[in-house]
User: Fold these one by one.
Assistant:
Number 1:
Amino acid sequence: MTASPIRSVEVLIASPSRNFVTLRITTEDGVTGLGDATLNGRELAVASYLRDHVAPLLIGTDAQRIEDTWQFLYRSAYWRRGPVTMTAIAAVDVALWDIKGKLAGMPVYQLLGGAARESALVYAHASGADLDDLGDSVRARLAEGYRAIRLQIAIPGMEGGYGISSGRANGGRYMYEPAQRAGLTVEHGWDTRRYLSHLPSVFEWARAEFGPEVMLLHDAHHRLTPIEAARLGKSLEPFDLFWLEDVTPVDNPEALRLVRRHTTTPLAIGEVLNSVWDFRPLIQEQLIDYVRASVTHTGGITHLKRIFEFAALYQVRSGSHGPTDISPVGMAAALHLDLAIHNFGIQEHMAHAPLAGEVFRTSYRFEAGAMHPGDAPGLGVEYDDDAAARFAYEPAYLPVARLLDGTIHDW
Ligand code: CS2
Ligand code: MG
C-alpha cells in the first residue's frame, strides 16, 4: 500500500457534561482518525503536549506506520513514561489505528487478530449513602442487564467516601463524577478504621440480598496500608468478590507481597500506571490478578496490547479502566482490544451522560451485561464539531482526602 501522509493534527477540547480532549488526525486523502487524550483534572497539559510538541512532528509522516510512530514519539521525547506523555502517545496511536481500519475497510478488532469472543463482559457501578440506597442502585443495574457490579457505600459517621453517586438527589440516575467543575479541589474526610469494620457487613448483606450469581467488585481507591489491605481482603473472602481494586497505593509494588500472603481475594491494580515497565513487577511476581489499565493512559492500543500479552504469560487477565473520564473514543478503542486479546477478564463500563452522545456518535452496543465495539470500519466513532462548539472547556479538579485530624491522605 502507498503511504498516507498526515495533513493535519487537531486537538479538540469540549465539555459535554465533563471535559474531553480528542485528537483528530487527517491524511492527505482526507481519511480521519480519532484518539482520546483526556487526563482527568490535568487535561490541558496533554492538549499542549500534543498541539505544541507532537503535532508539528507528525505532519507529512506516514499515518500507516503505527509501530514506528509509537517508537519515535516514545524515544524522541527522551523524558520517558509518565501520564502526560503516555496519554499523548496513546491519542496518536489510537487515531492511527482508526485510520488504518478505515483504509482497510475493517473494524479495528479485525486488524488486531479478529474476535476471540462474542462480546466483552462489562461491570457497572452501584453506590449508596446507605444500604437502602445501595440496594436501589444495584436493582437498577440488574434491571439494565448487568451481571457484574461494583459496590461503593458511604461509611456511617463519615461524609462523602469514595465512589458515591449523587443519584438520589438527581432522581436516581447513577451520576458519579469526582472531578468538580465548581471551584477548586474539594476535600473529603476519611477514617480507615470505620471503613474496615463496616465494609464486610455490606458485602454480607449484598450476597444475602442478591444471591451468589452476580459478580461483585469493590474499589478501595489506594487508601490502605499493606496490613490493612490484607485484613480487608481476608474479611471479604466469604463473599466471593470478582476483584478488590487498588487496595494500596501502587508506588511500592512489593507491598502487595504481604497482602498476597494473607488473602485469596483477587486483586486488580493499575489505573494510575502507564507502561509495561510499571506493570512488570506486579505481573512477573503474580502480585495482581487483573491489569487495571486503559488504552487512553497507557500508550494506546499498541502498548496496552503489549502489556496484556505479557500478563497472559503469568495468567494475569485484563480489566480495562473505563470510567466516564475515558471518552467514548477511548471506550471504543478498549472494546476493540477486549474482543481481540486472549486473556480478557472484564471491562469497566460507566455510561457517559447523554450530552456526551451529542458530540461523540458511537457504534458500540450493550446487551445482556456485555459490550461489542460494532463493525464500522476503524473505531466506529464520529465527532460532531458543531455540537462540540456548544460545550466550552471548564476547569475541573479531582478531590483529595483528609484524615479526621486534618492530615492529607490518598484519595
Ligand atoms: C476509578 C476512577 O473507575 C475507577 O475505578 O478509580 O473513577 C478514578 O477515580 C477516575 O478515573 C479518576 O479520574
Ligand atoms: Mg479504580
Number 2:
Amino acid sequence: LLERVGFIGLGNMGFHMATNLINAGYTVTVHDIDIGTMKKFSERGVPAKETPREVAESSDVIITMLPSSSNVLDVYTGQNGLLSSGNHLSPWLFIDSSTIDPQTSRLLSDKVSKYHLKGKKGYAENPIMLDAPVSGGVPAAEAGTLTFMIGGMEEAYLAAKPLFLSMGKNTIYCGGTGNGVAAKLCNNLALAISMLGVSEAFALGQSLGITASTLTKVFKSSSARCWISDSYNPVPGVMAGVPSSRNYDGGFTSKLMAKDLTLAMAAATEVGFKCPITSEAYDIYKKMCDEGFESKDFSCVFRHYYSGKDE
Ligand code: NAD
C-alpha cells in the first residue's frame, strides 16, 4: 500500500526527504519543474517524470513538498496535474507536506475525496488526503529527524506512519483536515519572532562588548534558551553546519518565512484574532526580501537588519 511513492518538489527540503525514502527501500518516482534537480535523481537511476500526472500513474502514495498554495494547486489541479487522468486515480493517499493555508488544504482534500480508486487499495473507496507539514529545517530533512504535524483522517495517518518515520522522528496527529497546516503556521509565527528576538539580543550584546560565543553559552544555560540559540544560531562563526556559517545559503528562505507570516495573519483575520507582533515581524522579513535577500536563509535578518551592513 505504501510501496510506490511519488515525490513532487525536490528543493531544499524535498531533495533530502525523497532521498531518505529511497534509502529506506521505497520505490520512488519524482518530479520537479527544475530540470537540473530532476537530473540529480535520474542520474541515480530514480525515474524522473515530466508531469505530476505521470508520477500519479505509477504511485500508491503521493508526497508534495512545494513552496506555496498556488504551486500546490497547480500540481494537483493543473492541466497535467495529479488529478488530471480521469475519475479513477492510482494513488490511494495524497500527502501534502508544504506549508500552505488551511483553506487550500481543506479544498483539495475535499476535491481528492470525490475521485475513485483504480482497484481497491487502502481504507476507503475514495482517495484520501492528509496535510502533513514539517518542522526542523534542512538539517533535520537531511538527517531524517523532521517533525510531522498531521491533519486529516486518523486511520490514514496511522497507515502512513512508517512513511513519515522514514523521513522524520516525530509525528503529531493534530485532528481534522487543515489542522496540520494550522499547527505549522502557529509554530512558524513563534519561530519568526524568536529569530528576531535572538538576533536583536545578539546584536545588542556585540554593541555592548559581549561576543556571540559568550552570549550563546549564557543562553544555553539560561532562560532565553531556545532552538534558534541552541541549533540555528544566526551569527556567523558561532556554529558549524547552519546557514549563518555558509553565507546564509541553503536553509529556509526569507521569502518563505514572509509567506508563512502572511498565511498566519490571514488565518488570524479570519477568526477575528489580533497578532500585533506577527505583523511587526512580517514587516521586517518583507523589507529584507524587498532589499534583495529573499533567497537567503531567514537567519540573515541578523546581518541585514540588525547590523545594517550591506552584503
Ligand atoms: P524550495 O523552494 O527549496 O523547493 C521547492 C521545490 O518545488 C523547488 O525545487 C521547485 O522547483 C519546486 N516546484 C515549484 N513549483 C513547482 C511545480 N509547479 N511543479 C513541480 N515542482 C515545483 O522550498 P523548500 O525550502 O524545500 O520548502 C518547501 C516547503 O516546505 C515550503 O512550503 C516551506 O514553507 C516548507 N518548509 C521549509 C523548511 C525549510 O527549512 N526550508 C522547513 C519547514 C517547512
